[in-house]
Amino acid sequence: MGTWDIGPFDNDTAADFAGDLDETALEEREAMIRGVLKRAAGPADFLGIYDGERAVGAAALVAAQHPDGDLACSNYGPSEPLPELPADLRMLAVDALDQVISNRSELAELWAEAANWSMWRQDITRLRNVLDPPIPPQEEALFEI
Questions:
Q1: Per-residue pLDDT of the chain (145 residues; tens, 9 = 90+)
Q2: Strand, coil or helix: what is 11?
Q3: Whole-angstrom Cα distance, residue 88 to residue 129?
Q4: Residues 6 or more apart in contact with residue 119 via CB below 8 angstroms
Q5: What per-residue confidence (pLDDT) applies to 93?
Q6: Phi/psi at 129 (nearest 5 deg)?
Q7: In sequence order, which ranges of the chain are alpha helices (DSSP H)?
Q8: Do 21 and 29 meet the contact criterion of CB atoms below 8 Å apart?
Q9: Angstrom distance (rounded) from CA 80 to CA 57
């Protein structure tokens, strides 16, 4: 695994994906991101490492455009601007991230063996929570029963 840190673009595959995005016409970048997310989110017996790494990068780009999102890109992310990504990509990105951390993911298997696995998992969870925020527990009932 050509990985140097836990960030979405801190590996060779995602960094190459960012470079490919930069070389693609602006109007084609959304379709490229959507394709990566669909491939990872789709039904499969096993999600390969390269599809998983690209999906994490694509999900980070979607999350970066969310009001609660952070800039997703390190020095290795895309340097060219992205178009406004449609809101429907958020749930597709959530589905892709769910596959990335599942027991059918080569990327999750490899990270499980790494010393900083919990940090990587927290970063994926943070991305997922930006895209699909958890519902906070109710302090008190809204209606009497």
A1: 588 899 999 999 999 999 999 999 999 999 999 999 999 999 888 999 999 999 999 999 999 998 776 665 567 889 998 999 999 999 999 999 999 999 999 999 999 999 899 999 999 999 999 998 877 666 665 566 6
A2: strand
A3: 16
A4: 6
A5: 97
A6: -70, -30
A7: 12-23, 26-41, 49-64, 88-100, 106-112, 117-131
A8: yes
A9: 15
Ramachandran region, residue 105 (left: φ > 0; alpha: ψ -120 to 50; beta: rest)? beta
Planar angle of CA 15, 4, 108, nearest 5 degrees: 85
Tokens of residue 15, six digits: 């960094």
How crowded is residue 125: how many other Cβ atoms within 10 Å of its Cβ? 13
Q: Contacts for 63-71 with beta carbons within 8 Å, 24 or more apart? A: 63/90, 63/93, 63/127, 63/130, 63/131, 66/90, 66/130, 66/131, 68/130, 68/133, 69/130, 70/130
pLDDT given for residue 15 in this prediction: 95
Local structure of residue 27 (DSSP, 8 states): H
Distance CA 63, CA 127 (A): 7
Pair 59, 99: CB distance under 8 Å: no
